[in-house]
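Appendix B. One record, verbatim.
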Amino acid sequence: MTQVYFDHNSTSPMLPIAMEAWVYAQSDAWMNASAPYRGSARVNALFDNACERIAERIDCKMNEVVFTSGASEGITSIFFWLAREYPAEKVLLAPTEHTAVQRAAEFFFPGKTDYLDANPDGSIDLRQLEEKLLTREYAAVAVMAANNETGLIHPWKLINALCRKHKSWYICDATQWMGKLESHEIGICDFLVASAHKFGGSKGCGLLKLPAQIDDFRLILGGEQQEGRRAGTVDYPGIIALVEAFDWTNKLTSKINDYRGNFLRSIANKIPDITINTDLNNSLWNTLSIALPKYENIRWIHNLDQAGFLVSTGAACSFETRASKTLQAIGKTSDEIRRTIRISSSWNNTEDEWQELAEAMIKIWNKLGHEDQ
């Protein structure tokens, strides 16, 4: 049976253009970019070109770009640097931040990690943020660009401006934004992280954008690769796959579809009392988090898997505990969380696939109802 994949916020398969670039680089540009011979100099030049391309796409300087193993590495290194530079200060987070952000903040700033309040849709109050910043207690603020579970979009430009005004660093987790929405200006954020595999690149490759004025930032100690900011042989094949995938997806951001809306209209009259977990007018076009009226989400997921559709409960990192901190933060009950599924598509998911998913869910709803009689 062919499986239709609707869990792209967890990970995406490599795009053909990224796979082609990766395979070619593995066979033609595999040398160590730091070695002293001409073949290595060529790889180093290709690496520099990749840095330049990303910097141009996100509107930052080339020397602000560092390639990492993924967003989690970038986040951990940011909080490590902050704790070293600002040991007496605190950090401020949105309560719906990814686990990687929350755990890194609480590890490096024990007892000094504060959280903003969340509105029922997951948004934050910018007035509360400014009131907090006026205290001058916070070295940094972390608010993601778009939520991985609900798809909610945060006003990162306004948050960045407030942080600049009050002289706090702004950390923007853009893992779900990049590859889905226009990203040309997102490089204005002080710190930015992303992971290639979320938008069709390879796993184990990510992006960290740093402020240009920081010259003592070290992710990994050792050699002088990436201007000494991250030691270790650069993974040029992974990096060029990231760049090609980002280029391809970024060209599509003017073609956002409403397949999600049509899907909801198809199931609205057949499955009553569905709760949408965020404001659809302010969320990623590809993401839908819904609490179904009955039956545990894992039961829905298993039935959908058997029907040929792969969806999730939410963040893959919280699947084992089934305790979504995002949904808890926006006031969802444990019962609602147990009934929540997340559907996340890619540019390659068709309208027909969304409609087939709707039909499958309606059939499963009727089937489960009969089983319970």
